[in-house]
Amino acid sequence: MKNIYKFLIVFVLISNSSFANEAVNWLKMEVDFILNAYKNDNITTKEKFEHIEDTINKNFAGAGIAKFVAGQAWASADKDIKKEYIKLFKRHLALNIASMMQGYSDQEYSLTNSKFDETNNITLIDMEIKHDTNSILITWRVKKSKNKFYVIDLLVADISLVVTKRSEFNSALKKIDYNLEAFNEILQNQNKLSYTKIIQ
After folding, report:
1. What is residue 95's predicted lDDT score, i.e. its pLDDT?
2. Order of all β-strands in the sheet with 148-156
3. CB 180: neighbour CB atoms within 10 A?
4. 10, 63, 159, 167: most buried by Cβ count inside 10 Å?
5. What is the C-alpha separation between 193 and 80, in angstroms, rounded?
6. What residue numbers bound the domain in which 59 lies?
7. Residue 146's pLDDT is what?
């Protein structure tokens, strides 16, 4: 009986390690795609962002993150408003991440550590970005669903992007009585401004 338990423990550890490695390989491929787009001088800045936005939209759990970030405003909004909000949020997320990655595009990075969190069924992948003598740590939270990996959060220096956005959005929503329709207009204007800065 003890041997069976030992076998099961070893099997679980190997499975978790394999799962984490699979997620690491997937993440490296997607990050390299984004960074290579920035380094490609044969396409316009607008085309670079379009490639990056498409990659982020495919690989981030945009709808789930959008719902969480909207907080209590989500429950009272109708279907069409929610649909428009998710669309606007996905672009907002892409603009934020594109802006962040743009700043790191000419620097070296390495995926330094990964572990599978069985409790939450997610893989945590640490990325170290180095520039001269400075470095920054980014932790990607990756979840597998229907045989596909999705990024569900990004921690920069231990600060969650999703939690930060929820706090930021809540402050803005509070001023307009958590009216998601009114917030969509604010988000749309903010996206336009951010987009202009990205493609300059």
Report:
1. 92
2. 108-117, 122-131, 134-145, 148-156, 159-160
3. 22
4. 63
5. 24
6. 21-199
7. 86
Residue 10 located in a structural domain: no
Segments in the chain below pLDDT 70: 1-20, 102-106
Domain with 114 in it: what CATH number?
3.10.450.710
Quickly tell me which residue has 């789930």 as its tokens. Answer: 64
**Is 31 inside a domain boundary?**
yes
Residue by residue, what is the 3-state secondary structure of the chain? CHHHHHHHHHHHHHHHHHHHHHHHHHHHHHHHHHHHHHHCCCCCHHHHHHHHHHHHHHHECHHHHHHHHHCCHHHHCCHHHHHHHHHHHHHHHHHHHHHHHHHHCCCEEEEEEEEEECCCCEEEEEEEEEECCEEEEEEEEEEEECCEEEEEEEEECCEEHHHHHHHHHHHHHHHCCCCHHHHHHHHHHHHHHHHHHHHC
Question: How many whole angstroms separate alpha carbon 54 and alpha carbon 59?
Answer: 9
Phi, psi of 12 (to 5 degrees): -65, -45
- Tokens 């003598």 correspond to what residue? 133
- Other C-beta atoms closer than 10 Å to the C-beta of 147 total 5
Number of domains comprising the chain: 1
- Per-residue model confidence (pLDDT) at position 14: 39
At position 92, the amino acid (one-letter code) is H
Tokens of 71: 């907080």
Question: How many residues are recorded in the chain?
Answer: 200
pTM of the complete model: 0.82
